Amino acid sequence: MNAAPRPNPLVPPSRTATIRDVARAANVSVASASRAINGLGSVTEATRSRVVAAATELRYVPNSAARSLATRRTETIGVLLPDLYGEFFSEIIRGIDGSARSRGLHLLLSNSHGDAAEAAAAIRSMRGRVDGLIVMSPHVDSTVLSENLLSGMPIVLINSVVTGKPHPAFLVDNYAGATAVVRHLAEGGRTVAHIAGPPANLESRERRRGYRDALGGHEGLVLQGDFSEESGYRAGCAIAALSDRPDAIFAANDMMAIGCLNALADAGMVAPDDIALAGFDDIPLSRLIRPSLTTAGIDIAKLGGRAVERLIENIGPGPDIHFDEQPELIEPRLVVRQSSAWNNATRTSAEKRGRETQ
Amino acid sequence: MNAAPRPNPLVPPSRTATIRDVARAANVSVASASRAINGLGSVTEATRSRVVAAATELRYVPNSAARSLATRRTETIGVLLPDLYGEFFSEIIRGIDGSARSRGLHLLLSNSHGDAAEAAAAIRSMRGRVDGLIVMSPHVDSTVLSENLLSGMPIVLINSVVTGKPHPAFLVDNYAGATAVVRHLAEGGRTVAHIAGPPANLESRERRRGYRDALGGHEGLVLQGDFSEESGYRAGCAIAALSDRPDAIFAANDMMAIGCLNALADAGMVAPDDIALAGFDDIPLSRLIRPSLTTAGIDIAKLGGRAVERLIENIGPGPDIHFDEQPELIEPRLVVRQSSAWNNATRTSAEKRGRETQ
DNA sequence: AACCAAATTGTAACCGGTTACTCGCCACTC
DNA sequence: GAGTGGCGAGTAACCGGTTACAATTTGGTT
């Protein structure tokens, strides 16, 4: 009559139901209960319905930790993003979330990493919590990745160039987008100045290269900026003060273009009549300001969704499907709005109101 | 010499290290290894360092599923958000993420729920994956919550009113914000019109109530909008067409204010000289457009951070700490910018450039 | 030197699922 | 009627941690 083998004899009250409870209630073994619940293996319709009934009766919800431990899958994908400005962030998450949810996957999010060490820590801390990773970060490089990713983990990169071992990746084609914008601005032999982004930034270098090549290799006036609205404002002031002004300005991103536009406005000049202007990114502000801003941009949400799909392909059975593939280039779409609508005849009334026909 | 008790005798190659491997390498028991790694219980410095050395040597990373299974904690908080527009979304996530990360917590995110059923599904699917929930959703109500939340799970609500059992909650004080804006616009006896948000929306009702009370209970001209820029534009056109125009307009949010501003501009009127204007939310666009927009808003990131802190208090030992407490009201701050700067004398040059001194 | 309390360490039983393998049982051939 | 193939169900061994409890060591007293 040794009555104390179990440490805690009376737990039943207010404890969440386990699969053993369900099995007992349905009068089957745990194995059958598990099979019935997951619809795998062979189970009679009779036992299946008995188990399901017991499960709903007991409000049974499988413990996901136990399940992951046994199956080695988490049904979760990790998302690593840099400290992004509003719209880009919400759009890419919207795309990722939509695509993930439709496949029953959860999202483990980590954003705003100041440096490579923080990004590495984030990657490491996600190990074992996710089945795959979507990484968009200027701070990762092949070292960070291989050091912190245990070999098997599938990963998809967005706008992050890593040398060394190739991973599936998506890259916005900054070069193509910039040439498209500059060709548009330069139509009819107009001179085009450039407000450049930070030289250390790959995207700003690519956009500048596009600018240069669109002008046949001969750069016009180039002012240094840092992607902030303030730096665009300063550049705009500088240009307004020139005696010999360019016909048009290509800013390396929309924020600087907006700053520049404001500077010109403060100097009493209006775009496009006095000087035309275009940016890059197509942030939502671009169509809301007056004059609305010509720019080039991509469908960010779609990009996020595609990244998830790509990741899932690689989570599946055979690892390393698209192994030594080139990064997939996403070409931005040129969006012409008021700020470069030189010719009134071509300005539709919808454009005048800053609305797009889409 | 029975050599086949283990099902898979040769797994060592490319298998991730477990705590037993570490224990073996450090020549201690798994219990000591666990204690050394977690810094709990008492362990000699000597064994601790041996274990740590072995762990780094083997690149050991604890399996989080196993850990959660044993400890019943996931070190993760779930975040449920509605389909939010850019800036609000990224700011609140920034605040939540920063606060969570500094405490070593992960974020499981789920956004864009179309209806109550989807929100309920999201809550249910997070069960067992998170230690607590931050919910901001117009779709939850007490039924959804009590049905899908097993009693113990801590939760913090943001801008969601649920009747019934009280939960810790934060609420933006739309009424107070609106009265502040309207009092400012009405200074000197000026007449103020209102562009209202969708009547079904609680926030727009509260803002309208603030508008009415700030005018002593007597509403002026009220136009119906739906929070979109388009509806603001239409309202602006309607006002521009009036023969007897109000001195100022209070739009129930910034997007409608911007639309209205554009409509007035298209009609050849400039704010604030012809008509003053203010919005609500203080989205970043508000200080970037010309004229920059007077508005009222809260520090969204801070709100997110505080929600996390509040949640953590309730995750701790004693459940239901702040049980029957009132929701915490967050009072928006009035931000006066160009669009209501009637008097040139009070307009600083910094404001003219649309920059704030903060 | 013996003794005892405190500090370390080890053993093994959990946490709650999944699943390889075994066992009955039944229908169907030969 | 014995042999056999296959299906449904059950047993128990995992997955990889944590931790209660027991066993051992340590160190300070008398």
Task: Tell me what the structure shows.
- 2 copies of one chain form a homodimer.
- The first copy, chain A, is of the alpha/beta class.
- Chain A has helices at residues 19-26, 30-38, 45-57, 64-71, 86-101, 116-126, 142-148, 174-186, 202-214, 229-240, 254-266, 285-288, 300-315, 349-352; strands at 76-80, 106-110, 132-135, 155-158, 169-172, 192-196, 222-224, 248-251, 276-278, 295-297, 328-330, 333-335.
- In chain A, helix 7 (142-148) links the parallel strand 3 and strand 4.
- In chain A, helix 1 (19-26) crosses helix 2 (30-38), helix 5 crosses helix 13 and helix 8 packs parallel to helix 9.
- Residues 1-13 and 344-358 of chain A have low confidence and may be disordered.
- The structure holds a DNA duplex (30 and 30 nucleotides).
What does the secondary structure layout of this molecule look like, with pairings?
2 copies of one chain form a homodimer.
Chain A: H1 19-26, H2 30-38, H3 45-57, H4 64-71, E1 76-80, H5 86-101, E2 106-110, H6 116-126, E3 132-135, H7 142-148, E4 155-158, E5 169-172, H8 174-186, E6 192-196, H9 202-214, E7 222-224, H10 229-240, E8 248-251, H11 254-266, E9 276-278, H12 285-288, E10 295-297, H13 300-315, E11 328-330, E12 333-335, H14 349-352
Parallel strand pairs in A: 1-2, 1-3, 3-4, 4-5, 5-11, 6-7, 6-8, 8-9
Antiparallel strand pairs in A: 10-12
The first copy, chain A, binds a DNA duplex (30 and 30 nucleotides) through residues 7, 18-20, 28-32, 34-35, 38, 40-44, 47, 62-72.
